Predict the 3D structure of the following.
Amino acid sequence: MRKFSAFWMVLLLSSGLLSAGWNHSVLNVPVSEPTKFIQQDFDVLHYEADIDFTNAPSKEMSGVCRTTFIWLGNPDTCKYYFHLRSLTIDSIFYNFNKTTANEIGAPDSPVYHYELVNLAGKAGDTVVLTIYYHGKMTAESESNTFGGVSSSDGCLFSVGVGFHNNYVSATQHWLPCYDHPSDKATFRFRFAVKPGMFVASNGIGPDISSNQENNIYEWYSNLPTATYMYTFAVDSLKAVDFSLKNHPIVVYTRENDVKATEFSFSLLPKMVSVLEELFGNYPFEKVGYVNTPLTTGAMEHQTMVTFPVDVAKAYYANKDSNNTMAVHELAHQWFGDAVSVTDFRDAWMSEGFATFTEALWEEKYKNYEKYLENIYTDIYFYINQTSANEGVFPLYDFPRENPSSNYPRTIYNKGAAVIALLRFELGDRFFPIIQSYIKDYKYSNITTKEFQQYLESKYGKKLDWFFNQWIYGKGLPKINVSVNGFKDKKNNRNSASITIEQVQQKEYGTYTNLPIPIRFYTYSGQEEYFIVKMTGQKETFTFDSLKYPVEMVDINCRNKLKDFVTLMEVASLTVDVNENGLKSEDEVDLTITPNPAEENINIKIIGNIGMTTLRIFNLTGDTIINTELNPVEENQDFSINSSTLSHGLYFVELRSGTNRTVMKSFIIK
């Protein structure tokens, strides 16, 4: 659902299309749930708050918040809701008339909130609700302190979502607000702190003034912002400026971390330029980051990313300025902030696009091979670690119970791979369509269904099959492959027959339009690439006139086709190749430990083998190591030094005669 902005509401009122007699179709509706958007009878336009943080870094605070909203239904039959957690309400005024709010539900409920009923006015009225409150701010829980408000190492800061809280949005830990992503609003915050403390927050600012013994930092924005994107950080902070001509770019950090910040964020201006080239103009007033003691990730608060200072210092210590975490959070300014989810069932769109953008950055900053390496790394981790640790579930409306969470790795790893598949499907139209999508939905909300409909309207083709199997469906295809190859010297004719069968669990369904890359190649390096598309569970593909003899075959290889990526797992691959007939050699097998590896790859050969070739190659098919092994006895072990290999996914190939075994090995640096 795309909500009305304040601009459109004023336009409807002035034109007479919305009036006190407007037949609002949904009255007395309950509050929206984190994973269930419900259209409300009000639309919040603006939050203005004066907050006393003079006890910082203590969590004790007091504040007054003025919420301006418009009634879409008649208030005598409608309700206004707001969220506030672990703080005490002192008094409430509705248009300057004192009133009270009912506390609804237990604090452990995902829809715990306050409601106001029987209020004066009529549909179309703009009103102000003033709430005075105080108390000790809290985090999402005692054991999980990512979301909510934290005080650590002298820094008081907030994070707008929780990983494990059942209500997800966590701005309600410090601000009374309708804390649901569907209702975006403008804001103006004034924070009072003791001298020597600085407040970093969203939007434009800070305007600094004094009030008796305290300093007041004022931040504001006239651009709609989801409440879970509001934030603050109170500390003795310094500004490190990276501004471009047309964009203020600033990172706030402590004095002793300035040098590390200057280095680890040195590519930030280039990142902004690259992402503007990909997605269109930067959508907000500034690019802002603040280093905090956060230890479990970063958070993409609109124009003020909360960033873990230890990560910034690690980039500096490693002399690596390619800050991919900064890229990820910057991408969110387009995906998640400018265009926000309607509720948290759609979180995959934000995290999938942001993780995919890390690969795009590698492509632009380095080369296309790095893009592929990044995407296939996500695929590798999804198949081999993420799905095993979290379970297998859809990208949309995923389960949140342990071992999953509000932000499981699945929506990052698999989400990025699915966006890469979408890039391949849309081809050269991908970036123009995505730029148009950002422009048309900027400062509003979208659902997965609306996203599909938008893509279809621009692409001109239905994408039900794509969304059903990759987004609403769970898991991924797993295939068995059998290759029969012929080298007909007499007739100078080479051919091959490949049978592919999908063997994933039945509950995952049968994948259609499944692109499968095939590479036939010879010992001398001659090669041919093909892509076949599966439409059923089992299919055979015939290649009658190959240029070269079929000596070796790769499935799920990097194909020399622009933007090609596929998402699947090869369960087994058997290859039989002969001259004018079929011939199978004794099988050769191997194991690799550890996997992932850091300095050494330990290889165990299983079975008696004759003269054997061992080859290690990367995602692009480039040979890194190629060596002939003398005949060895059964179950021999040896080690290869991998310290010179860069971080990423590699393939270890053992070939004896026409038989070939390939295993994946991941190198961690």
User: Anything to note?
Assistant: The domain at 238-340 is CATH 1.10.390.10 (Neutral Protease; domain 2). DSSP finds eleven helices and 35 strands in the chain. Confidence is low (pLDDT under 50) at residues 1-28, 580-586. The longest strand covers residues 60-71.
